[in-house]
Amino acid sequence: MTSSIAWGLALALTSSLAFAQTDSGANDGRRWLAGDHHVHSRFSARYTPDPTAPGAPPVPQLGGDGNHTIIQNAEAAQRYGLSWMVSTDHGGPLHARLNAEQAWPELLRARESVPGLILFYGMEFDTPGAEHSSLIIPRSTHEREDLLRIESRYGRRQPWPEDPGRDTEAFMLEALRDIATMDPRPVMVTNHPSRSATSLGEYGEVRPHQLRDWSEITPRVVIGMEGAPGHQADGLFADGRPDPAGSRGIYRRFPTMGGFDQMTARLGGVWDSLLGEGRRWWITATSDSHTHISEGGDDFWPGEYAKTYVMARADGADILDGLREGRVFVTTGDLISGLDMTVTAGDRTATIGGALAGGGEDIVVTLRVRDPRAANAGGRTPSVNHIDLIVGDVTPPGGDRDADTNPTTRVERRFTAADWTVEGEVLTMTHRLPASGGPRYLRVRGTSGTEPEPLVDTPGEDPWSDLWFYGNPVFLTE
């Protein structure tokens, strides 16, 4: 990293903290803390048959699908401005033992080596009947035993010989019911939900009805999905040239849109369909780091490109509370480093992840966005081109569990530079909504580009030239 980029990242982090601290009293001492819940290490092993023992479980090869130590990942996360990170190695035959006996001690050493980073123990759970999820274990004296219990009992690829009965939707629901009884309860986020989709609206291993099932069974465990998947460097060679054989997110069948999964990016799509039923279903953004682009991989370091910001105190329990409650916004390429959405009716106020009861007054939406002047890790200084205030109606769920549209979703207001005021790095704008609109939700997105909607990403696309941010919603209730 050049000294100018390092300085820029430090300045961006300082600016973000100052932005949050201006409202520290109203936020109960909380501020925006950037993190990443999907990071692999050398304990994401590949498995090869043991030639000396036919029929025996395959042998895990450390570094086979992730070549960094947990300590290296933690150091990189801190270097790129993250306050928290989850170590999430994925499984295989009898992987639970590898996690408990080898990954766990290295995670403890990483906590000692990088004490300024709040480091969670977890895994990329091989989701029964689906694909993958980030499983975040709350910090406790029994966190190793908690993960061992979940992976041993419910990991889809854990048994040897293989057990097809573990790869069913019903088994996932059984797992969630058990996980919900744990104290403290873990958090789970659905990873790259449309990576196996074949086209727009034609889903693969993860379908909308599963998201509904999971959110209903354990709304405080399965809290949402990756809006922006990792592997965003797949379209680049190590020297930064476009790789025509690569695609952002390694979405080989149907591409991402502005770097985001179609379930999030499509206006009025899956995410809006879930929000339109009143579901508290949140989005995140991650690196899915396995091997860095400079080493021939498809990935950026944790925090180098994507960040998930949580409004929380610098405390593991409060960070997980922020994820559960949706006090989250996400950004790519450090397009922004702060986002406050304040929704007011009379003397009542709600912010991102919250709800506001109506009372006959007009609704005033105030947005404060920090657009940092410092260079990002790509050496660019992107600016926000426009910001959308999106509104959707909330109505009772219909009978179609795979519904993936909300026809009421619309861009209520598009803000450009002519519509906001600038004070230093902070952009401020307001909009008034009538009181008589019925139950609704409000959410915000913005981009560095001029396109009105996220475009389908092309092979070899430069991820640094197409940046977006998304905020989780505020609900208006009657």
UniProtKB/TrEMBL annotation:
Domain Polymerase/histidinol phosphatase N-terminal: 35-129
Signal peptide coordinates: 1-20
Keyword Signal among record annotations: yes
SMART domains: POLIIIAc
Start-end of Pro residues biased regions: 51-60
Alphabetic keyword roster: Signal
Location of region: Disordered: 44-67, 438-460
Protein name, as recorded: Phosphoesterase PHP domain protein
Source species: Brevundimonas subvibrioides (strain ATCC 15264 / DSM 4735 / LMG 14903 / NBRC 16000 / CB 81)
Lineage: Bacteria, Pseudomonadati, Pseudomonadota, Alphaproteobacteria, Caulobacterales
